[in-house]
Amino acid sequence: MELQKGTDKPGGEQTTALMTGQEAPGKAPACARFRFVILITAALCLTSLLSNMNTYNFTKICMVPKNDSTTSELDTKMSTILIPTANEYGFKYFLVARTFQGIAFSATFPIIGAITADWATLTEHGLFCGLLTGCTQLSQIFTMPVSGTLCTSRWGWPSVYYAHATFTIISFCFWILLYKDTPEEHRMVGQAELKRLQTGKSKKKAVREKLPYKQILTSKTLWGAWIAAFGDLLAVQLVTMFNPQYVNDYLRYNVFKTGFLAALPVAVQFCLKLIGGVSSDMLTCLDETLKLRIYNSLALGASAFFFIVLAFIRRENNVTAMVILVFAESLLGFNTAGFNKCITLHSRQFGHFGMTQIMNIWAVTILLEPFVVNAIISANTFEDWRNCFLIHAGILLLCNAVFCVYADAKPAPWTCVADEKPDGEEMISRPAATEVVRTPPSH
């Protein structure tokens, strides 16, 4: 065991750090798993942000007709609180409030990329991607039943926005108290945990590395992942924006039942995200790139199959339609071990940039999907919904095929990180992770 002395504090105290790969038996630090506290805190915040995006998608079916118009974006605390008031003054004010929601929404995927790169070990990328991207589903699991209950209560649809704003404020209080950009900065991260987090990653530099824009933007692997993300997110927007409309207007369930039925597929999808992420990390008998192709095909390919089946189920068979809808939507959850994980593994310390492009793609699909779907389902007939589901199925299959051709789990040459054997031994030399000996700040 190597003992490394720390620097002296102003009061003459000195700290020591046990630089070992694991804690001594019975001596594990109280915060040896603090990265999971960060993970859960981030998940709460992202869920609150994404929940506020979904509020309008549900409340539009229980607003009075004169207010039944606007676009879809996301949340900030104050804009969510002000939306009911803004709606009373007209579309222009409502649009401004929703724009501020969109500003907060833009931060979600860069946060996911940065947290996964800095706070996850290389064997935990699937778990972190699973839970953090799963906030899309968690937000709907929270929003749909809560909105359905509040919309039919004596408080009406404005209470939906006030409830979501309260949840947002509480979650961000925890974020402000607990989060730091990197583990090296956090007092609650033990030395053993810090060393595990640094293993296999490029050396931390005092000066922030410049992004290799040219190499990133010409990477076929990343473009394949982004194309897969486009197909996936179009289907996700179909679920997010039009599930309440499909269940309420087409299948003719009442508003209260719509809230719970619309949340059912995404609840299963969230479970599959976690199962996909964790099982992908644990399944060491398969090549990592092969796993990316398998899980992405389960997400996009299998989902496309069930959308095709759903396209030919008529309104009278509403129970069967709901069962197939659960399969079609929930299988998208396996994307966490597909294109999402591919981006973080291939671009390593630059993963936040790759995930930011998913955020941009998401924004494009948010703007594009309402025009596409509303143009297709203008009459709300069986033929309209059939065409809608078939078009989305075709896009999913095409995008998955492109991803499978270019998927690669190995770190890109421009990350300056050597590849590793399954047993953890390096195939070629890599820079040692920065060893940090931290002294608690003086008071």
UniProtKB/TrEMBL annotation:
The chain crosses the membrane at residues 32-50, 160-179, 221-240, 260-280, 292-313, 319-337, 358-377, 389-407. InterPro entries: MFS, MFS_trans_sf. SUPFAM superfamilies: MFS general substrate transporter. Keywords: Membrane, Transmembrane, Transmembrane helix. One of its GO terms (molecular function) is transmembrane transporter activity. The keyword DNA damage does not apply. It comes from Ancylostoma ceylanicum. Residues 1-11 have a biased composition (Basic and acidic residues). This is Transporter, major facilitator family protein. GO terms for cellular component: membrane. Residues 1-21 are annotated as: Disordered.
